[in-house]
Amino acid sequence: MPKRKPSKKYPRPSVRSRAAGPDAGRRQDRSEAPPAKSPSRRGPSKAAIRETIESVAIAFVLAFLFRTFEAEAFVIPTGSMATTLMGRHKDVVCPMCGSKFEVSAVKEVDRETGVSLGRAARIVNATCPMCRYTMDLDRDHPKGKLYRASKGDRILVNKFAYQFSEPPRWDVVVFKFPGKATRNYIKRLVGLPNETIRISHGDVFVKRRGEDDFTIARKASPKKLLAMLHPVFDNDFTPRIYTPEVRKHGWLPRWRPEADGDAAGAWQPSDDFTAYETSGEASGEVWLRYEHRVPSQSEWLDLTEGNLPPGEPRPELISDFCAYNTCRAWSEPVHDADAFGMHWVGDLALKCTLRPTTDSGEAIFKLVEGGRRFRCRIDVATGKATLGISGLDAYHPTATTAVRGGGKHKIIFANVDDQLRLWVGRREVEFDAPTTYDPLGNTRPTEADLAPVGVGANGAGLRISKLKIFRDIYYIAQREQHSIIADFERGNLTTAEDVHEVLSQPEHWRHFFDDANMREVTFELHSDQFLALGDNSAKSQDGRLWRTPIANEFYVDCDLLIGKAMFIYWPDTPYKIHLPMFSLPFFPNFPEMGFVR
User: Angle of helix 297-304 relative to helix 496-504, nearest 10 degrees?
Assistant: First the structure.
């Protein structure tokens, strides 16, 4: 924080003579008594000077002690923790749908010195996470009004957090890099001392000393789990993506009623497709399903040039796509495949606003993973919620919720880390039985995963809005350094178009997502050793990749831990604050301030 400059001391204005008239200021007559001498002005006493110096010295000592033992400020240098923490990046606004997102700008500067690498390294492309339009930052934003470079989030680190207790799993920590102890790294702890960690199908599994089997590492804290979810699609951007001109080409919104609109009780969209409603008149269940129809860059190009034949993008699997990684420098010919997420992610969450319009019936929420259907049924008359999994008749935890009759209710239904979880409002619902489940063998996608999210009604009138879909972090099982980090032998999978082809064609899934072809890695930790991984798994130089000439070990020793990432105190904003006389270009983004989860 910049130091405040001391205010300047101005001399007092001279006291003018009280004499008036033309003789004012002349030498007085000697017969007159000489004027009394004004007391001489003296400076501050020695005691006052000493007290000031001591106060300044004490302030410096306290600041030094606070920095050394309590907290210290850090700037996030890279994008290894995106989107939890942002390194050097550009804040972007999509010209097609208006979505605001961040894209990495680390390539623009030298990693060691931070000096710009010139025009060849300048980021010129970014892909929107909502509509997948790949924009040219110079062409689509000629005046730079819709994007701005940022040097990274500024955070406070609690250096006292681990003095008397061991760091818990999933904490975000700052530590000295094992191979170069002068450099600070920031990652998330996934492995603790005396554990063996296995990474498989995007999840983390743990076997503690003395145990025979691995168990999945779950995120017990609700706030931690929600903070680690990545956005997949926000339906509020539908009006700008699926305009009447786009729908003329056959591109329809991704949320679709299962039954024909003329059928009794079928889901009816609002005029802008941001909300759906059913009257509850149908005799059975009626469904609203999400299909992950993501247009490729070539399809967007054909559409904007008027060359697109009738038809819409094929549905594809939800992957570990992260818009932050879609940065293409001026000198790079095409996007790499890993920038568009090559791995199928089955751990999903649905967030929406539910408003019952009748006093009876059921609201049903469904998630699909590997062909298995995970459901949550809520009786709108009693508020009773019941969980269920296809093929598991004995699995039916129940709970009482606040969903009774009318009113609006914010709902989150998640299937993450082999556990179903439900939030109503701001609170997680507690069920009468464990909501975890044993591995189901659903590690390979099926055609049902092309429509992985659904909202149903059984005899209930419902209105659904604010539909948002999220995915869990996918940890890639990698142990060696490669130009593209993948869980499988990628073969000719090198471009974004190749990724679209694989994710949308079931005949490719056996080769890329079959258990026999998927990598699996293990890390054995001893006393005082931790495994730290980045949230941006595809672009993180973390413990999986440290067994290189740069470093000799994959773990972080406890002596290298600096502290816990505590608070984002200065996230940059892409906007300037315009005042009458000047602008503030570095105004903090207050909504993004908060605790690091």
Answer: 100
